Amino acid sequence: MDAxxxxxxxxxxxxxxxxxxxxLSTIWYFGLWVGLQVLMIYxxxxxxxxxxxLGGFVFGALYALALRKRVQAAVQQPRxx
Length: 81
What we know:
single chain, 81 residues, alpha+beta, two-stranded antiparallel ribbon, 3 helices, 15% strand, flat
């Protein structure tokens, strides 16, 4: 999920907030997602590994940033038909 943010930071995505469909930039969308994860940790909600979600988010960001130039070069190269 965070790889999408790292590779396409200016793209807007559709998100459903309660019953409303809104278009948000990826930074706002994932910021809300991280905030929700932190809130769930604070509230000790259920037996879900909320820290694992955040750890995966951070790992995805680091991995995507490491591959960012390679992915962008592959996207910009014209394909042979």
